Amino acid sequence: MSRRELHLNINILNSGFYASAWRAPASDPSAFVDVNHYVRNARIAERGKFDAVFLADTPVFAERPEYRPYQALEPTIILATVAAHTRHIGLIGTASTSFNDPYNIARRFATLDLASNGRVGWNIVTTADSAAARNFGLDGVVAHRERYERAAEFADVVVKLWDSWEDGALVGDKATGRFVDIGRVHPIDHEGAHFKVRGPLNVPRSRQGRPVLVQAGGSGDGRDLAARHAEAIFSVARTQEEGIAFAADVRARARSLGRTGPIAFLPGLSTLIGATEEDARRREEELWELFPVEYGLARIAGLLQIDPARLSFDAPLPDDVAPPKDGGHTFSGATIELARREKLTVRQLLHRLGTGTGHRLLVGTPETIADDIEAWFLSGAADGFNLMPDVLPEGLEVFVDHVVPLLQRKGIFRTEYRGETLRDHLGLPRPATGWETASEAVEA
Amino acid sequence: MSRRELHLNINILNSGFYASAWRAPASDPSAFVDVNHYVRNARIAERGKFDAVFLADTPVFAERPEYRPYQALEPTIILATVAAHTRHIGLIGTASTSFNDPYNIARRFATLDLASNGRVGWNIVTTADSAAARNFGLDGVVAHRERYERAAEFADVVVKLWDSWEDGALVGDKATGRFVDIGRVHPIDHEGAHFKVRGPLNVPRSRQGRPVLVQAGGSGDGRDLAARHAEAIFSVARTQEEGIAFAADVRARARSLGRTGPIAFLPGLSTLIGATEEDARRREEELWELFPVEYGLARIAGLLQIDPARLSFDAPLPDDVAPPKDGGHTFSGATIELARREKLTVRQLLHRLGTGTGHRLLVGTPETIADDIEAWFLSGAADGFNLMPDVLPEGLEVFVDHVVPLLQRKGIFRTEYRGETLRDHLGLPRPATGWETASEAVEA
After folding, report:
1. pLDDT, tens digit (0-9, with 9 covering 90-100), for A307-350
2. Complex ipTM value
3. Does residue A200 have a cis bond before it (omega within 30 degrees)?
4. Is the distance from CB of B270 to CB of B388 less than 8 angstroms?
5. Which residues form a coiled coil (chains A, B) (predicted)?
6. How far apart are the CA of B182 and the nearest CA of chain A, in angstroms?
7. Domains and their CATH numbers in chain A
């Protein structure tokens, strides 16, 4: 087995994870609807030898668009554009299993995988957003368990479609006129509780076989979905203990399902970097100054599913606040725990989260950040990180120019891409289709 | 009103419209799954000042993939790639209203429209293909009328979503921290027979306002859909009389619905060009020699929905063959009529269709082809053409280098792009959202 290696994704959250990033001096407020912004960041990340670009998604007009940008553009279109402007970096896009058909998702990601020469990953989400549900004929969010049952079957169907072509089924022999060997392209004839799909897919496999399956979401159902399908996981871990426990739990669930392949655990990591500690703190205060406090209250209230009127900036969270039992967001529990553990007021909590996503936030110098990443990597709390710089592209540029060289010097991060596909970057094998033996038997 | 001008789209049908195009000496059999093939053709067409690239689509493994390529890659991913490699040419992609959700289609095409700076069109189809239906939980094709009712409502919803943002709703004022003026972004609250969609869309309008609506399909229901929504129509016309009558009929239907804007009629046109007539004929015979006859029988039988065993190469079509009443293909009737009118055997019919799509085929020199195009344009039988060269890219290159200059010399085709958007190319106005007056009233 080859040496373990750190993995880094850049999560291009519009102008940056900090809610006021769009107001920073160098930011373009329209960046969130400009594909060139995504291309620019992807190219910087590729210069830094990152594994992949990561794009989140919710098919809805954002919660509080008065105050800040959000994921507006459809991710696969952005990634196709990024693919055209890059050569190596992986391309991971989110698509919801609640508001799509498996045939369309399988085909679109397979097309993108061919277009990028095997650099694609699909981040599977179920979308716990009732406003999004109302864009798709529903009155609200479907129950958590049912969403995840649908997601598991959805992913099963997508994988079966991706594997419906054997390698070599595309013959294209001009001399004989034989184009496709249809004996090596297999209908899937799937019939389940949620989907009935005949197949086969209409595109052949890519250089990496099929897109990498990525999962985000840490509930019990989410962990089961990850255990069943995920090859990389965008997780939440605020302490090394949390990271270690989460990975152990998902790995145990995967083993119990008979899965043996590798899984990369990539917790979210927000960064705010300065040349000195003082510099970093000053940068943080500048962004905090630009942060609209009304947005902060609304965001915390939305996360916890309570009335914003129940929150006050200079008081702690109300005692009776608890993570919503069903349909809750991945970050609800972690946010409450952080507030309680460190006895934070709402204002301190917002400041501590960097107004951000609920992922861990590191404020510091390139050295402290590289040391922290190394410690997490060596302890097994993370195989790498889904990186969310404060402001884009500048926060990413600083990371690439000043943190990446330190990680390379520590010998834990690549100095050159050694493969072409996302599977190559992540150290994942090219999967078999499951049809190989059948055809060999027929041919024998 | 400005002078009427010819419009040309390049319909990139994998290796070319001729069924054996992939076997031609210069062809790459894998071109149909290679985005670079699409990019290459788009760039040639852009050099020729074409209005747009056009991509057909059916979400299914093709009818006879043993013999020939088909539309495999998902069109919007191809078009995003093409957008990244071109500056002016329009990008028209087909997506089915039977196997998608309006919110997803509205958002994906709006994203592509932003990514390409306003060069996108959506070709609305209902997909009369029972194998495709079986990839989406159905047992077969839904009845013609119902498909078109769904399509009309689907397009209504998509347009409402595209128009849910007023121009100027994206404020992005760093000084005040005001990001989106949500008073100028409107939920659509659509509730109809097929869809319930709250909206608004989550992306602002593009430079051209919204994507151009394109329609293909000539049945009565198809004409009604075109009359209601289409700004450009990919039609079938084998004679000028047919073209003139079709345009008059659709324009009359549009007027009766109160529509006043322009509609561009662009019949399909297959071309097979030689330096001399003899050259063109030789080229035709070479492609015919490479054509697998089994495929031809199967294709005609499929089109007419009859048992292939009922067809014989050297006999005419059976007397009792008639266009299928429901769920039939646009070309069924035209194909039967051609065979009867010219008393063709099945072999002659295939040869005459150039083994192709059922659209009109011109075999000749650049001069005869340019003269033909001019005659159709001047008589009003066509506002332009959806061009399908025999072999790609060579058939397109010959057209661009030898036919386009003749059309320019005749003064009917542009020598430079004069605008940036697809609407500019097609002479279509940038549409209003319908919200303008409301906001002005509120502001007054």
Report:
1. 888 988 889 999 888 876 654 566 777 788 888 888 999 888 88
2. 0.95
3. yes
4. yes
5. none
6. 6
7. 7-283+358-443 (3.20.20.30), 292-354 (no CATH)
